[in-house]
Specification:
heterodimer; A: alpha/beta; Rossmann fold; seven-stranded parallel beta sheet; 7 helices; about 30% helix; globular; B: alpha/beta; 2 domains; nine-stranded mixed beta sheet; five-stranded parallel beta sheet; elongated; binds flavin-adenine dinucleotide; binds adenosine monophosphate; electron transport (chain A); ETF_a/b_N (chain A); electron transfer activity (chain A); Electron transfer flavoprotein subunit beta (chain A); ETF_beta_N (chain A)
Chain lengths: ~260, ~325
């Protein structure tokens, strides 16, 4: 079983995230980055599948030089090898271009049975790269898995929807996106951290993938951020301490605002 | 006037409110044509007509829904090619976004998700989105192909406008490649009788502070006719279903009123409620970060504050 896990390097959600005023892209330089927390679930799930059977887990990231950190973390968790696609031309790429680069990289890795992704990145939070990637690779996708089993050539997931809980199957090769309900990602062990240092990481450029620079980056994006503005901070309203009348005061506030 | 395709969100013909919102938005951009997949069109027709759908393209084949999103993306791609619409609007739900993502690649068109406003702009469509856990507002346009916009619930007030809702049954068969994934079992959820979380005007949520007892939160919610939400801590503890989780990895809600009870206000929770119009919190800890956001806060024990408020609201209503 050859599994590729797509992981994204994102600005830390706990930090002040912002945009570059020059081109309206996400500021990735001045904010510390890390492996998107939601992609840890994808790494963990892939490791569990391989540990229960056999195979190999490759982590793939498309991102700037610093994105090597995301690969490192996944290798420390236990993934076997990494692929880092980096190219100056990629800066400012939208989901469409990112999915193109990921798709070409997966084709180059070759002979992949299962692609695992997170449910959404913690910066863009669009949650569309997995479906775009599956579309480009011509793969069936089962998304938002809260449970995954792979048996023979079938992947089966459980998806908790609003109206129903569904069981969905797909024939391999397939793409699966996982939610944060699926498992509890492991912390890298000391042994894992030491072992990661010797694991191979391939560095690929766009040329290595046969992708033309004109197909990616800000100028190739199919959408354009025209402007951005910080939301005015909410001004704190009235805070009362409950002295036996907190509930009555709350009801009075809601009545005054016509919610009752 | 160019057509604007609206993918109808419905359960057996019961049309969800988001669809009337999308039809209202579609009228700003052109002439709304609804796309209806599945059974129950007779029940849906009246609503679609009332909110201005001139045409309804429909496909009845059960195969389309069994195989999840790919057939629907193929269907929309076929319509985009045939009708050259001014835009395609879908609900910004996980399923809607997945359909939109595949459609974008198939039709080489720009996609914007999570729009909270959509307006006609010079030669196209301009959207507003709320990003980075609601701390920024971004306006964006589509620069290639047919604008595909996934629109969040509550992004427009549904306005009625009579449409013909003339239906046309389409001849459509999904490709074999579209059948790679299949729903093999579906267990319906029990209805709570409360409004749907993302559509509700008022949401009352409980967190770890409930210590597992949501009854006070539910009673208070019911006195206001509200939906009930939960923090991830409450969901992870098994106190409330995951489908009720509010936040980054749960539902993003933007109601008129959001009441957080026993919730600290972590960034991931804020990401799902920060754009609510009015925010209220009840929390024992006066330093809980949730208080930074509130229009009104009570520092106190939810087990005494909520029942008192519930009684006062019920009394006011009688
Ligand atoms: C990748 C990732 C995704 C996440 N996604 C989400 C998400 O979608 N949604 C989400 O909510 N969280 C999410 N989280 C978790 C988030 O970081 C917090 O851990 C979570 O929101 C905390 O829930 P809480 O506020 O209920 O619990 P706590 O932080 O423990 O807060 C409980 C609060 O209750 C108060 N309290 C206790 N007893 C009472 C009482 N009797 N009366 C009144 N107040 C009382 C306490 O003072 C405290 O402020 C995510 C985390 C990660 C890492
Ligand atoms: N630049 C990237 N490199 C690798 N994987 C990515 C990248 N961007 C997105 N992904 C994958 O796609 C998922 C959804 O991302 P998004 O559509 O951006 O919300 C993530 O959880 C990752 O698994």
């Amino acid at each position: 079983m050859n599994i590729v896990v797509c992981v994204k390097y994102v600005p830390d959600a706990q930090a002040e995230r912002t945009f570059n005023a020059s081109d309206n892209t996400t500021d990735r330089e001045n904010v510390d980055g890390l492996l998107s927390e939601l992609d840890e679930y994808a790494v963990e799930e892939a490791l569990k599948i391989v540990e229960a059977g056999e195979g190999e887990v490759t982590v793939l990231t498309v991102g700037p030089e610093a994105a090597a950190d995301a690969i490192k973390k996944a290798l420390q968790m236990g993934a076997d090898k990494g692929v880092h696609v980096s190219d100056d031309a990629i800066h400012g790429s939208d989901a469409v271009a990112t999915s193109l680069v990921l798709a070409e990289a997966i084709k180059k890795i070759g002979d992949v049975d299962l692609v695992v992704t997170g449910m959404a990145s913690t910066d863009g939070t669009m949650g569309v790269v997995p479906a775009m990637l599956a579309e480009r690779l011509g793969l069936p996708a089962v998304t938002f898995a809260s449970e995954l089993t792979v048996e023979g050539s079938t992947a089966t997931i459980r998806r908790d929807g609003d109206a129903s809980t569904q069981t969905i199957t797909a024939t391999l090769p397939a793409l699966v996106s996982v939610t944060d309900q699926i498992n509890e990602p492991r912390y890298p062990s000391f042994k894992g951290i030491m072992a990661a240092k010797k694991k191979p990481v391939e560095q690929w450029s766009l040329a290595d993938l046969g992708v033309d620079a004109s197909q990616v980056g800000l100028d190739a994006a199919w959408t354009k951020v025209e402007s951005f503005a910080a939301r005015p901070p909410r001004t704190q309203g009235e805070i009362v301490a409950d002295e036996g009348d907190g509930g009555a005061k709350l009801a009075a506030f809601l009545t005054e605002r016509k919610f009752v | 006037m160019a057509e604007v395709l609206v993918l109808v969100d419905h359960v057996d013909g019961k049309v969800r409110k988001t669809t009337s919102e999308l039809l209202t938005i579609a009228r700003r951009l052109g002439e709304p044509s609804a796309v209806f997949v599945g059974a129950g069109f007779d029940a849906a027709k009246e609503t679609l007509a009332r909110f201005g759908a001139e045409k309804v393209y429909r496909v009845e084949s059960p195969e389309v829904l069994e195989h999840l999103v790919v057939p629907q993306a193929e269907l929309l791609a076929q319509l985009v090619a045939d009708k050259a619409p001014a835009a395609v609007l879908v609900p910004s739900s996980p399923e809607g976004k997945e359909i939109a993502a595949r459609l974008a690649i198939k039709t080489e068109s720009g996609l914007i998700t999570d729009a909270v406003d959509v307006q006609a702009a010079d030669g196209g469509v301009a959207t507003t989105q709320s990003v980075f856990a609601g701390s920024y507002t971004v306006s964006a346009t589509v620069t290639k192909g047919t604008p595909i916009i996934a629109v969040k619930p509550n992004s427009a007030t549904p306005e009625e406008a009579a449409g013909a809702a003339a239906d046309e049954v389409l001849d459509f068969t999904p490709s074999d490649a579209a059948k790679g994934a299949k729903v093999t079992e579906s267990k319906p959820k029990q209805a709570t009788g409360r409004p749907e979380l993302t559509e509700a005007a008022i949401v009352v949520s409980g967190g770890r502070g409930t210590a597992g007892d949501f009854s006070k939160v539910e009673d208070f919610a019911d006195s206001l006719g509200a939906a009930v939400g939960a923090s991830r801590a409450a969901v992870d503890a098994g106190w409330y279903p995951h489908t009720s989780q509010v936040g980054q990895t749960g539902k993003q809600v933007s109601p008129q009123l959001y009441v957080a009870c026993g919730i600290s206000g972590a960034i991931q929770h804020r990401a799902g409620m920060q754009t609510s119009k009015t925010i209220v919190a009840v929390n024992k800890d006066n330093e809980a970060p949730i208080f930074e956001l509130v229009d009104f806060g009570v520092v106190g024990d939810l087990f005494s504050v909520l029942p008192q408020a519930t009684d006062a609201i019920k009394a006011a209503k009688d």
